[in-house]
């Protein structure tokens, strides 16, 4: 994504239709989104969660599908917008991460 790309092009398609219930994410999907919010890469999240990079990417694919978006950034916006994660979240938890 370009540093000069307008924000509305990033969030396009993020807003849900009126009355639509927010996506239901698993606890693992929520943790992975929180780590993504904290700037972690798939490789770093895999190490924290004690799983493979493929597993992390599988969860990201499911998250994008559930939110009907095409990027991690859009998924993060959607998760914050719907209250799935909060900006004040300090430590999403994980097998090897100590705050």
Automatic annotation (TrEMBL):
Parts forming coiled coils: none
Domain HTH luxR-type: 18-83
Domain of life: Bacteria
Stored Gene3D superfamilies: Winged helix-like DNA-binding domain superfamily/Winged helix DNA-binding domain
InterPro entries: Sig_transdc_resp-reg_C-effctor, Tscrpt_reg_LuxR_C, WH-like_DNA-bd_sf
Family annotation (PROSITE patterns): HTH_LUXR_2
SMART domains: HTH_LUXR
Listed Pfam families: GerE (PF00196)
Keywords from the named record: DNA-binding, Transcription, Transcription regulation
SUPFAM superfamilies referenced in this protein's UniProt entry, alphabetically: C-terminal effector domain of the bipartite response regulators
Protein name: Helix-turn-helix domain-containing protein
Source organism of this protein record: Pseudomonas violetae
